[in-house]
Amino acid sequence: MHIVVCIKQVPDSAQIRVHPVTNTIMRQGVPTIINPYDLFAIEEALALRDKLGGEVTVLTMGPPSAEDSLRKALSFGVNRAVLLTDRFFAGADTLATTYALATAIRKIAEVYGAADIVFTGKQTIDGDTAQVGPGIAKRIGLLQLTYVSKIVSVDPESRSIEVERRSEGGVQVLRSRLPCLVTMLEGTNEIRRGSLDDALSAARATLVKWSAKDAGVEDIAKCGLRGSPTIVKKVFAPTARAKKADVIDFGTQAPAQAFVDELFKRQPNLEAELAALTRGY
Amino acid sequence: MSETPKTPAPAASGRASTKKELPEHFKGYKHVWVFVEQERGQAHSVSWELLGAGRKLADKLGVELAAVVLGPDNEATRAITGEAFCYGADLAYVVPDPVLTDYRNEAYTKAMTDLVNTYKPEILLLGATTLGRDLAGAVATTLLTGLTADCTELDVDADGSLAATRPTFGGSLLCTIYTLNYRPQMATVRPRVMPMPPRVEKPAGRVIEHKLDLAEADVITKILAFVPDRDSAKSNLAYANVVVAGGLGLGSPENFQLVRQLAGVLGAEYGCSRPLVQKGWVTSDRQIGQTGKTIRPKLYIAAGISGAIQHRVGVEGADYIVAINTDKNAPIFDFAHLAIVTDAIALLPALTEAFRNRLSPHSRDRLAS
Asked: Which residues, in sequence order, are CB contacts of B338 under 8 Å at separation 6+?
């Protein structure tokens, strides 16, 4: 089995701050992490490799600093890490991103063997689009299995795969075929700690670094900003509501009781509605 | 979002600003389409919300609004098509085929891309559900066009370009995105973000049936089973009339039960802000905000939630927002209606008790007499 996992290095969004005056993102000092949803993909790939044998290759597109995330992935025990980095990739939207990643996955197939499964997380925490996984699948012609909550079985001989997939109102049990693309749902496993050996070798390992040309990109116009059909025209902070919240001054009253009185005084219909809702309690 | 940035009229921000003509082969792309999502004979209500949003775009552009219905050739599909007219569609494109009985990416992507390539819409809207996102990403890549996910506001500017606004940078800012030189312009919108339009009883309008050239034998992925969620496991958060939610101000996972207790007394659903899910205090199906659920309750009580944009876009559709927070400068007070500057941990138990007394049958009798 050869499994490719696509990951993204993202700013730790819990720590992003917006400049109060200029409304711009203050990037300085914001730590970067592996997109948390991708950890489920990495672990699932490693678990499958442990069971069926083979190799796991991790791939990311990003600035040279994305090396940090690849070394982290190596410390979990993946076999190889590929960094796709080139100024031509800058400013890519999801369509241009899938072009670059799909091209690199084809190159990985040439050099290290064809991928039986490509994994991604269900989405990233900075873009939140969930579009890149399906996009890669369509570009390479892989069967697409998104929001997978469990890999029931993989049979490399018959090339079949059975998964449970989260859908609206329930779980679909699907049988499909390799090669396929799987996006893993969160909470489906827990990323391993990685061995001491892996941690030590991760720091020293040589990463595979590819430019657009190295990866076999034939048409630079399909990459980065130029290759992106969507254009971000405006970034702005939402304007405050004209009227801010009324702050209740409780005076000497018991605040909870005073609050309930105040709420129902302002919203007289609510009391009847709440009473109807709680009937039978 | 009811009170979002009415940004300066986007007149000059679309095509006009690029001084480029739309490529010739896209000039024939016209009309607004909404994908009507159905599973097991039930239409997802996000489809009607999208027809409401699509109606406004179509009227502004002076074009038609079409519903796209994919499904088995049966009564349910026909009934759903009929409903689409009641929610504002002028016409419907229907692909009735047994291959489309249950959602599978291969078959649905082919049906949708065939329709787009045949009838050429300028705008295509889908719900940002697990089904809609799976389909939209595949369709946009197949058509090599732009797709903007999880929009919170849709508009068309003076020259007819779709202006799709969504939160960005982890929900700390908003951005407006255009797909200027490709068609269709695609966007997804999450359930409950757009208001439900009124349903008006109407006879079915024009229905254009399209044949799907795909045999079951050619679809590789097979559905072995469908396991519906247990009722107890389903949260009705998105559609609840009253919601109580907690944030980091609760201080510890144990204190989250204070939120659940108040919700219990109010007959409400409970939820939380994103940090509590990331910390593992609460399961992700309870998350309210851009990456969680969007809610439109009559009453929303936010306890110890600061109100980052990520959270704000998920709750702005609430009729009445009450905020409890120790920080009088917390952004939540910018969009709440009623505020209490105090420690939620101390107030919540007393509030639960006060509501319990007020809403108990005994006090209701007293009220009636």
From this structure: A245, A246, A248, A262, A263, A266, B320, B321, B322, B323
- The answer to whether A236 contacts B298, with C-beta atoms less than 8 Å apart, is no
In B, which residues are within 8 Å of A167 by CB distance?
A: 39, 103, 130-131, 226
**Angle (deg, nearest 10), helices B256-266 and B344-359:** 20
Note the pTM of the prediction, 2 decimals.
0.88
Q: What residue numbers bound the domain in which A278 lies?
A: 240-281
Candidates A19, A131, A225, A261, partner chain B, best to mutate (most B CBs within 10 A): A131
User: Is residue A227 in some structural domain?
Assistant: no
| Whole-number pLDDT of residue B2 | 42
Question: Which has the closest alpha carbon to A73: A101, A31, A111, A45?
Answer: A45
Window 74-133 of B: residues touching A by CB (8 A cutoff) are: 102-106, 109, 129-131, 133
Residues A110 and A200 in one domain: yes
Answer yes or no: do B180 and B282 share one domain.
Answer: no
Which chain B residues are Cβ-neighbours of A245 within 8 angstroms? 321, 323, 332-339
Interface check B335 vs A, CB under 8 A: yes
Both tokens assigned to B212: 């799907």
pLDDT attached to residue B320: 94
In a domain, A272, yes or no: yes
CA distance A108 to A153: 25
Tell me the ipTM for this assembly. 0.89
- Residue A255 near residue B245, CB atoms below 8 Å: no
Residue of B nearest to A159 (CA): B220
Name residue A154's beta-bridge partners. Answer: A161
From the list A13, A93, A167, the residue facing B131 with the nearest CB is A167
Q: Do A256 and B347 touch (CB under 8 A)?
A: yes
In sequence order, what are the beta bridge partners of A5?
A58, A119
User: From CA A168, how far away is CA B37, in angstroms rounded?
Assistant: 10
Q: Are residues B211 and B272 in the same domain?
A: no
A196 and A262 inside one domain? no
* pLDDT tens digit sequence for B55-75: 999 999 999 999 999 999 999
Does B92 share its domain with B203? yes
Q: Kindly report the CATH number assigned to the domain that includes residue B90.
A: 3.40.50.620
Examine the domain organization and report whether A217 and A86 are in the same domain: yes
What mean pLDDT do residues B112-136 have? Answer: 97
Q: Could you say which of A18, A135, A169 has the minimum Cβ distance to residue B228? A: A169
CB-nearest to B339 from A23, A36, A246 is: A246
Q: Is residue B233's pLDDT more than 60?
A: no
Domain count, chain A: 2
Residues B137 and B252 in one domain: no
Which residue carries 């903007």 as its tokens? B148
Residues in chain B within 8 Å Cβ distance of A238:
4-5, 174, 309, 312
Alpha carbon distance B164, B87 (integer Å): 22
Residue B315 in any domain: the answer is yes
Q: Tokens for B16?
A: 């006009």
The predicted-structure confidence for A125-135, as pLDDT tens digits, reads as follows: 888 899 999 99
Residues B80 and B128 in one domain: yes
Strand partners, B258: none
Whole-angstrom distance, CA of residue B148 vs CA of residue B130 = 15
